[in-house]
Write a structure and sequence with these properties.
Length: 163
């Protein structure tokens, strides 16, 4: 599926103290070398990088507080990600928390992966245009989301394991 590239960085001045409290992780667990920002391709997400997969998989965020924070700032969830992937062929691994909807966590989140690809492409001066993003392994339903970015469009495809 391809969509018109309407990506935007909504806010890249994110308070890491607040974010770490909402995610119930130590502030030092946030990877400050990767973008932490609110980005959107039509559905704004707070993108939060953590330093490794262990932190990503073991976090138990405060979903009630995340829900309140998302309502206050008109966000559609948090997408927490890391470069510490399970597959050497993948670029990033993520978890999507969106307690505003009936389910707390998704096994694959296209709009979040697209927003992540968009912001990473910008931060790399448009030199990296394709990304493979893993999601769902911690829920025993691993997926791979493939993102391709151009100035005109964002293309997404993926594979999801459902049991």
């Amino acid at each position: 599926m391809s969509i018109i590239n309407t990506g935007e960085i909504v806010d890249d001045n994110v308070d890491l103290d607040i974010v770490s409290r909402l995610l119930a992780i130590d502030k030092a667990s946030i990877d400050t070398y990767l973008p932490c920002a609110i980005a959107s391709i039509g559905s704004p997400k707070l993108l939060v990088p953590v330093i490794n997969r262990s932190i990503l998989f073991n976090m138990t965020p405060n979903l009630d507080l995340i829900s309140q924070w998302c309502k206050k700032y008109s966000l559609n969830g948090f997408y927490v990600y890391s470069k510490d992937t399970e597959s050497p062929n993948s670029d990033y691994i993520g978890r999507n928390f969106n307690p505003l909807f009936s389910h707390q966590e998704d096994i694959a989140t296209g709009v979040a992966a697209e927003a992540l690809g968009f912001i990473l492409n910008l931060k790399k001066n448009n030199k990296k245009r394709t990304f493979i993003i893993e999601q769902g392994a911690n829920l025993n339903q691993p997926s791979q989301i493939y993102i391709a970015i151009s100035t005109q469009k964002i293309t997404i495809k993926g594979e999801v394991y459902c049991n």
